[in-house]
Amino acid sequence: MIAVGEGALYRLLSWMSPAYPIGGFSYSHGIERAVEAGVLGTAEQLRAWVAAILGDGSGRVDAALLAAAYRAEHDRELDEVAELGAALRATRELALESAQQGAAFLVITRAAWPHPRLDAFAERHAGEAPLPVAVGLAAAAHGVPLDPALTAYLHAFGSSLVSAGIRLIPLGQTDGQRVVAALEPVVVAAARRAREAPLDRIGAATPGVDLASMQHETQHTRLFRS
């Protein structure tokens, strides 16, 4: 069991809260297109879709990037992680989703929880970076242990996708929380793998999600930005 100090826990809960103003509510990660196409229409289908993203898709990649950013000891190493994170996005909308949330996370966190490493990183990257890299750096800078940071990030990511599904399918709030509960072993396993994942061997295998994201770019009526 990893002990988390009260201050570190408070910071982590604040950063991963849906109330943290990074705009996560406006992205569906392709779910909007999947619902439009009739691929997602039940709670079980939503669970399977989000589980794939967390275990084999962007969640898996993000968790490895977060861990690498957390462990980076030098600016060059951290910058390489950020560049890799930007390159590993399969579509324009998925790249936008991560970069814009990362930029917002840096702005808010530098204002509320300032740290010289965050300032230096933002200056080098014009205030933009993949969200998991920004979160990993903030966690390291402010003494949040890696293990809970990984679990909290993946939980927040999954919960945001479930929230999008609830609104789009639509589903009731109780069904949504059943889906979140069912994702617990997926999040735990993904966090565990990320702790040991070498960056030269990470990747995603969710072609259905990527295709949905590509098709969403030209979808006529849209509520979400991805």
From TrEMBL:
Chief site of localization: cytoplasm
InterPro entries: UreF (IPR002639), UreF_sf (IPR038277)
Keywords: Chaperone, Cytoplasm, Nickel insertion
GO molecular function, one term: nickel cation binding
Source species, domain of life: Bacteria
Compartment list: Cytoplasm
GO CC, alphabetical: cytoplasm
Subunit details: UreD, UreF and UreG form a complex that acts as a GTP-hydrolysis-dependent molecular chaperone, activating the urease apoprotein by helping to assemble the nickel containing metallocenter of UreC. The UreE protein probably delivers the nickel.
Family label: Belongs to the UreF family.
Function: Required for maturation of urease via the functional incorporation of the urease nickel metallocenter.
Name under which the protein is recorded: Urease accessory protein UreF
Protein source organism: Sorangium cellulosum So0157-2
Native organism taxonomy: Bacteria, Pseudomonadati, Myxococcota, Polyangia, Polyangiales
